[in-house]
Amino acid sequence: MNITLLLPAGRLPLEIMAKALEVAEKYHLGVYLSTTQNLRLLNVPEEAVDAVKAELAPLGVQFKGPGKFPLPRVCVGAPHCNLGVIDTERLSAAITARFKDKAMTKPKFKIAVSGCPLACSGVLTTDIGVMATRAGFEMYAGGKGGPYPKVGRRILRKATEEEVLEVIEKLVNFHDAHTVKKQRLYKLLDHPDFPFPEAV
Ligand code: SF4
Fold first, then answer.
1. What SS3 state is found at 18?
2. Which listed site, 8, 130, 157, 195, has its alpha carbon 20 to 30 Å from 22?
3. 84 C-alpha to center of ligand 1: Å?
């Protein structure tokens, strides 16, 4: 079995890294750094799952599970990248804080944040993309990767951070209201009530 440790903004605190190493050695586990910037422990014996989680949980580790609001995938941003316009870790935390009390999130939409228009975190090809520019934020909706990739619709330009948070909330609520079990956002772009036209 696998256990995925959620790592906000792709950051791996040293104490969690040390504990993950300790349990990996103890139970002979593999370690995979996932494309969603989380840390996955591989080959966990079924009978050891609870014990492994119990060793990590006291450090504040959250585990991947159904109904959790997705952590944004972020590029490293400012001040670690010279081109970064914003601190992407901070914006990721603001998004996560905004939805921390959401009881049940329907899959399968993802969120990405980039610190500049180079879009290293794939904001153009994910469900909800937030791109920082020198003129404010741009937002994209309904992008996707996979075998038939699709660039998202630009739905916002020159926006403030508060406007970005409000738009994410509107998109999440729309997705929630129009999704039975799970759905990528691109399937809702042509819904007659989709709240955002192309921003030119
Ligand atoms: S998107 Fe821009 S800020 Fe982010 S890592 Fe790429 S170049 Fe740097």
1. helix
2. 8
3. 5
Q: Please report the atom of ligand 1 found closest to the CA of residue 85.
A: 3
Taking the CA of residue 76 as reference, the ligand 1 atom at the shortest distance is 5
64-96 as b/e: b if 16+ CB within 10 A: beeeebbbbbbbbbbeebeebbbbbbebbeebb
CA of residue 95 to ligand 1 center, whole Å: 19
Distance CA 100, CA 95 (A): 9
Task: Give span(s): CATH 3.30.413.10, the chain.
Answer: 73-188
* CATH architecture observed for domain 73-188: 2-Layer Sandwich (3.30)
Q: Ligand 1 mean position to 109 CA, how many Å? A: 22
Closest ligand 1 atom to the C-alpha of 116?
2
Question: pLDDT tens, 22-70?
Answer: 999 999 999 999 999 999 999 999 999 999 999 999 999 999 999 999 9
Q: How many helices (H) and strands (E) does the chain have?
A: 4, 9
